[in-house]
Amino acid sequence: xxxxMLRRWFPTINQKLTVDDLTSSPNLAALVxxxxxxxxTATGPLRIPAKLDPLDLPRxxxxxxxxxxLEQNVRPVLRVRLAGTYVCEKYGRExxxxxxxxxxxxxxxxxxxxxxxxxAMKRAPDVARREYISLNGGLWSYVRVILPMSRDGHKxxxxxxxxxxxxxxxxGGNVAA
Length: 177
Prior knowledge:
Elements: H1 3-9, E1 13-17, H2 26-41, E2 65-72, E3 76-83, H3 85-91, H4 106-122, E4 126-133, E5 139-149, E6 158-163, E7 169-170, E8 173-174
Antiparallel strand pairs: 1-4, 2-3, 2-6, 4-5, 5-6, 5-7, 7-8
């Protein structure tokens, strides 16, 4: 059965959560606190950080993070600046330089970009539980957070995305353990 057929039977689920819902994802909650602390010392009118110190991040999240840059082309796309080792292994290659169009089905890539644009507009973290069929036919589920970042302090132009490894499952089994 092809992944396209599977996606017809198992549509993507994008359940919005709040930061308060992260009680079962303490590493993501800690990441949001690191971001909030970085906002307090950020310069520029937005008070959005340009970077997060990796030494401040929960170590368990490092293989599950991505830094994404927003590119305003004919339609907006997200280009990977950095991807954790787990994320690259999942897709079977180094993702740096690739766009979300390269490793998500079109409707899923559009949703990821729309979520990022919403984060940019609200200038606040976005938390969601996602379930989807990957391009290689795997059923994935996880909780993720997307944080707004600003390289120049004037506009949100990049994003820090992290998956909760405890919530990450593939076809009924926890894959992060």
